[in-house]
Structures are given as structure tokens and as C-alpha cells.
Amino acid sequence: MMEVLKMPKVKLGDIAKERREVYNGDKSSCPVVGLEHLTPGEIRLSDWDVGGNNTFSKAFFAGDVLFGRRRAYLKKAAQATVDGVCSGDITVIQARTDRVSPELLPFIIQNDAFFKFAVENSAGSLSPRVKWEHLANYEIGLPPMNEQRKLASLLWAAYELKESYERLLLASDEMAKSRFIEMFGKRQYPQSALIELIEPDAGLSYGIVQPGDDGTGDMGVLRPVDLIDGRISTSAIKYVNRSIGDGYKRTELNGKEILISVRGTTGITAITDSRFAGMNVTRGIAVIRFDEKKVNAIFLNAAINERTSQAFIQEHTRGATLKQINLADLRRLPIFLPPLALQKEFAAFIEQLDKSKVELQKSIACTDAMIKSLLSEAMGE
After folding, report:
1. Residue 222 and residue 147: Cα distance in Å, rounded?
2. Cα–chain-centroid distance for residue 127?
3. 356 touches 210 (CB < 8 A)
4. Are 209 and 140 in the same domain?
5. Of 117, 123, 120, whose CA–CA distance to 11 is shortest?
6. Within the chain, which residues score under 50 in pLDDT?
7. What are 22-40's pLDDT values in tens digits?
8. Which residue from 109, 92, 110, 95 is spatially nearest to 145, judged by alpha carbons?
9. Cα 23 from Cα 30, distance rounded (Å)
């Protein structure tokens, strides 16, 4: 572990300042950043629009830190890699280069202690925002400049390692798609409607109409927002009294089904496992209880996410305020059906790939922990 000198606390406003320059140039080819371009946990800006119809006028420059001041609990902050213009809901923070290393500042901002401070100093109920004059009072311990540079170098090396793991994760997803196309894309197989692949008498149902928000019950209820990148997130599961679930036995989970979002962003899927047995779902999720004698779960999940299946789902998604797909339409979703042996061969490949992804995700978590540990030790937190 790197040796660092413990320093007296300094305020953020002593080592950085808010940039308040207005962009008056031509925005037709200018990078434009809104809150949607800041990804929680990502410390380097990698996404933006170019030009377009917007009223943004706040200028930023490469090296500045862009902090999402609205709903700070979303933990959005990143160092700009280009010059551009951004939303008024983003605070542009510029390093005072004689007091703090510009390469260290993004890590000072993108950390749990700073976000906690920002949330505590935010005002507003529906869309809380925090002002720079409050952020400027955030206190940290700061080592001498030469130690800051060494620390920044270590932190960026760790972050770039994390990025390499994330690229491997994306490559794994692309490998799964390529394998699916390789095995099934060049041959004609008979088609079945989704309803024909469901367990006899199981039907296709959505869940609890109004689960409530008190979160005090003993039955977990999954919502569309809990379906993320093909998996079920357990970070924000709602709970209700089991008596409410008693009226929705058809959608009580047994840990052997596929879930699909049918409201909001439709067509997102995930396969359940034993962790979710006994839970239920909301009106925004349909439960697919597949017939294992006809179709393999991993294959069916991939087939639903295949391009033509997703096109069918989006074509039948309707609604202006709240988009949704009717279950009658979803039951008609065409699924091509290769022999079960081929489906299982594909599933075995995906299961092996998933093991590698689990290891990559563990490596990402360990790298995140190392970054936090390095920063915490150096800042005396």
C-alpha cells in the first residue's frame, strides 16, 4: 500500500471551483451532455450527443468534472474527455491546479462520502438539487501534490483495469449472440407461438395490480425496473404482505420461469432461480412457465431476445403515456423451435459463458473496492 502523509482537512471550494462560462458558439458539431449521458460509477465521460435541438449553454472543457447535481443519490459524476456544452442540472467543477491534481479530482468527486454529503445538502422533494456553495463546504484530507500525482496514477491504473473487465463482459454478451446466430440463424426450423410452449394450464399472466409502497411485508414483489441486462437485481426489491399475494397465486414464483416486462420498456427478460421462489411480480411483468419437454429455458430466453422477436414485441407495444403489450399479442409471439438436444447444447455454452461473466463481475467489484480503499486511506477517511 502506498505511503501517504495525512494532511489537515481542506474544503472542496479551496481546491476546486465551479466553472460558469457560457457557450456562445455554433452547437451543430459540439458535444452535448445531459444527465442521461452520465453513468453511475463511471468516472470517465464516454457518451454524449452532437449538436441537436437543445437550450444548453453551460460550457465545459476536457479535464473538468461533470457532476449531476439533480438527484445526487444517482451518483453521476465523470471527468470530461472533450470540450462541450451541458445541462444546467450538471455542475462543472474545475480543479485549482496549484492545489489539487486534475487527475485526482474526479476520484474525490466520484466517491460515496461525497455523494452522501451532496444528498444531505440537496433541497427539493420531487427533484432535489444541490448548489455549488454547499458542495464547496465538503471537507477532505489532502496529501501533498507529489503524493496526489502518485495516488492519481494508481487510481487511474485500477480504473483502466476495471474498464478492461467491463469490455470483456460486453464481449461475452456479443459471443452469446454470435453463438445463437451460428447455431440457429442459417437453418429453417418449425415455429410455435409462445403460448404453445407454456406448461399445460399455466397460461400467461401478469402479477399484482397494486402492490403498494410501504415495503413492510414478507413477500418480495419484482417490478420491471428490477430486470436489468438479463438478470434480476435484488438491490431495491419491494415487499408486501403475503395476504396481498394470496390473490395472485398464478404468478407466485417457483424459481423456474422466465419473466418479461410488459409495461414501460417492454421485452426485457430474466430467468428466475431458487432465490426468487415464493416472490411475486407486479402488473408490469408477465410470468412465462415454459414446458421443459418442449423448450429449454436458456434457449427460450435467448429466442425472445432475438432481433425478430424483439421487433414483434415492439410492433405490438402500444400506448402514449404508458406503453404496454397486450398479453393476447404476447401469446402469439413466434418462436422457432430447433430440436431440444440443440437447445441444450446452446444452453451448456451459455452456462459456461455465464461462469466466466461471474468471475469478471467479481473482478470488477474487487477493483472498485481497491479504488475506494486507496482513496479512503489517502484522504484519511
Report:
1. 47
2. 20
3. no
4. no
5. 117
6. 1-5
7. 988 888 889 999 999 999 8
8. 95
9. 10
Three-state DSSP state, 129: strand
Domain that holds residue 319: 190-337
Place of cell 467479481: 362
Q: Which amino acid is at 321?
A: T
Q: Which three cell numbers stand for residue 189?
A: 426450423
**Maximum distance among all Cα pairs of the chain, rounded to whole angstroms:** 72
Grouping H, G, I as helix, E, B as strand and the rest as coil, residue 9 is strand
Which of 376, 282, 262 lies closest to 326, judged by CA? 262
CATH number at residue 136: 3.90.220.20
What is the residue whose three cell numbers read 402479477? 207
CA torsion sign for 134, 140, 146, 150 is: negative
* The C-alpha cell that represents 56 in the structure block: 444548453
- Count CB atoms within 10 A of the CB of residue 12: 22
The answer to whether 222 touches 190, Cβ cutoff 8 Å, is no
Amino acid at 87: S
Q: Give Cα separations from 20 to 23, 60, 144 (angstroms).
A: 10, 9, 28
Euclidean distance between CA atoms 30 and 336, whole angstroms: 45
User: Can you list the positions of beta strands (E) in 209-316?
Assistant: 219-222, 227-228, 231-232, 238-240, 258-261, 269-271, 280-281, 285-288
State how far the alpha carbon of 312 is from the alpha carbons of 182, 304, 316, 333, in Å.
Answer: 22, 10, 6, 7
What is the residue whose three cell numbers read 410501504? Answer: 214
Q: What grid cell was written down for 70? A: 439533480
Residues 136 and 241 in one domain: no
The total of structural domains in the chain comes to 2
CA distance 379 to 381: 6
15 shares its domain with 74? yes
CA distance 323 to 263: 6
Contacts of 356 (CB under 8 A, 6+ apart): 172
- Express each pLDDT in 345-365 by its tens digit: 999 999 999 999 999 999 999
**Contact status, residue 155 vs residue 371, Cβ threshold 8 Å:** yes
Angle between helices 340-379 and 297-305 (to 10 degrees): 80
Q: What integer pLDDT is reported at residue 2 of this predicted model?
A: 47
